[in-house]
């Protein structure tokens, strides 16, 4: 048996966990290690004031453990605000599994992860995220009840992506109303970047509403399929960000609004599904505002998925899921008006309202 000797000097030199940039008063971070199955996972519990920390599990081939930690810290914080702004009684959490979902995911690994989730006794409830399928959640369900997003025949709410897309559509229409004075998308040009599970359904809603839809993706086959199905136009330019369109809908990866792109964007409205779209939420949100670009906060308009899985916990039906998701329209209008009135970025306006709800509940609990 080999025993690693801890080098105290080395530890002092490294950045302490609580000092990490993305560490934002997280309540608990759990490192899960299981040699037998090869599981290396991190569960981030950001805040549980409003309820149990619910958030998906992402399996990704991170280039380092620090990158994985950073991701889970950022994503779990995002979940706190997403649930708070949506009015759900849920806290914020997220999990990451380090590894390649295509080659390293096994039922044993998923069950091992599920047992770690179970050991938290419901403080964290998991769901699917990038690299996960409904079937994986069904496997996790075999060892813990603290999982949502399981298949419909096992009592779950099924695939959340169509609901997420509908919520994004609602937020996009509200943003159009705020910017252009009408939410009628007839003749408006929209560029959807990433036409995966969410992006494709968004394209469907947009084309049905009469928008001129441009699509961009790294997957050529999908581009052709979505073009043929909905009559969308494949974006042929070399610079997606500089595209002359009315609305840009980021539905691929996060941080696409960054130092490189923020000044190139020609769209007048940004509304999409991707999480953490602003690489730096202070700087880039401010530049968008100064440039007169209306930005729909991602964590507000992509909440359809969490509304869908929340139904599994609260036992509400499809009608209520759609009603709650439709309400994203009103909340977006409210946030965008507040941002103008208080002269702040829309992202910050949304964060403020969400934080207020958490603080109110905390004060109530203390009474
Ligand atoms: P997905 O993996 O099904 O689709 C992503 C698409 O983006 C793929 O078609 C991929 O080829 C494409 N893509 C990747 N890199 C690209 C690039 N550089 N340029 C253009 N296209 C690129 O994912 P999804 O479930 O549709 O989710 C999309 C985004 O929305 C993700 O950021 C996700 O975190 C977020 N989100 C999804 C849900 C949900 O319910 N699925 C909920 C909330 C947030």
UniProtKB/TrEMBL annotation:
Active site: 94 (proton donor/acceptor)
Origin: domain of life: Bacteria
Residues engaged in binding NAD(+): 194-199
Gene Ontology process terms (BP): amino acid metabolic process
GO MF entry, a single one: nucleotide binding
Residue ranges of every copy of the Glutamate/phenylalanine/leucine/valine/L-tryptophan dehydrogenase C-terminal domain listed in the record: 158-366
Positions of transmembrane segments: none
Keywords: NAD, Nucleotide-binding, Oxidoreductase
Family per similarity comment: Belongs to the Glu/Leu/Phe/Val dehydrogenases family.
PANTHER family: LEUCINE DEHYDROGENASE, VALINE DEHYDROGENASE
Protein name: Leucine dehydrogenase
Annotated source species: Salegentibacter mishustinae
């Amino acid at each position: 048996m080999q025993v690693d000797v801890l080098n105290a000097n080395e530890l002092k030199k490294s950045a302490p966990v609580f000092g990490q940039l993305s560490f934002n008063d997280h309540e608990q971070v759990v490192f899960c290690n299981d040699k037998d199955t090869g599981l290396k996972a991190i569960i981030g519990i950001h805040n549980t004031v409003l309820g149990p920390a619910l958030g998906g599990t992402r399996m990704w081939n991170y280039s380092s453990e620090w990158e994985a930690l950073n991701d889970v810290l950022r994503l779990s914080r995002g979940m706190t605000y997403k649930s708070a702004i949506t009015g759900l009684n849920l806290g914020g959490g997220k999990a990451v599994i380090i590894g390649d979902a295509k080659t390293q995911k096994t039922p044993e690994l998923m069950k091992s992860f599920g047992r770690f989730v179970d050991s938290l006794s419901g403080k964290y409830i998991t769901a699917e995220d990038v690299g996960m399928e409904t079937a994986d959640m069904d496997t996790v369900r075999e060892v813990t009840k603290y999982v949502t997003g399981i298949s419909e025949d096992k009592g779950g709410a099924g695939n959340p992506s169509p609901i997420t897309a509908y919520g994004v559509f609602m937020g996009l229409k509200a943003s159009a109303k705020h910017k252009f004075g009408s939410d009628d998308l007839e003749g408006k040009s929209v560029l959807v970047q990433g036409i995966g599970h969410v992006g494709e359904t968004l394209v469907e809603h947009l084309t049905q509403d009469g928008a001129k839809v441009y699509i961009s993706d790294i997957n050529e086959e999908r581009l052709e399929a979505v073009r043929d199905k909905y009559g969308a136009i494949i974006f042929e330019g070399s610079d997606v960000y500089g595209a002359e369109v009315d609305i840009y809908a980021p539905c691929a990866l996060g941080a696409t609004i960054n130092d490189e792109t923020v000044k190139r964007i020609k769209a007048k409205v940004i509304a999409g599904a991707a999480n953490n779209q602003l690489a730096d939420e202070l700087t880039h949100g401010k530049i968008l505002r100064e440039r007169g670009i209306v930005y729909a906060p991602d964590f507000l308009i992509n909440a359809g998925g969490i509304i869908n899985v929340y139904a599994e916990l609260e036992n509400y039906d499809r009608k209520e899921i759609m009603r709650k998701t439709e309400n994203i329209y009103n909340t977006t209008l409210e946030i965008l008006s507040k941002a103008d009135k208080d002269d702040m970025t829309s992202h910050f306006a949304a964060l403020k309202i969400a934080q207020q709800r958490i603080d109110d509940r905390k004060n109530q609990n203390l009474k």
